[in-house]
Design goal:
Blueprint lengths: L47
């Protein structure tokens, strides 16, 4: 039986803007806006 690792094992990257671990990597996309400290994503419409 093979073992599976996470997509990116190891320490989380530190955000340049805040100096804290980058929470965007751990934002739960199933429940939007569950991390109010993050800026909302601005989607660019297709041409």
């Amino acid at each position: 039986m093979e073992t599976r690792n996470g997509i990116k094992p190891g320490p989380k990257r530190i955000a340049d803007s805040t100096g804290k671990p980058d929470r965007r990597q751990r934002d739960n996309k199933d429940t939007p806006r569950n991390t109010p400290s993050l800026k909302p994503h601005k989607h660019k419409q297709g041409k």
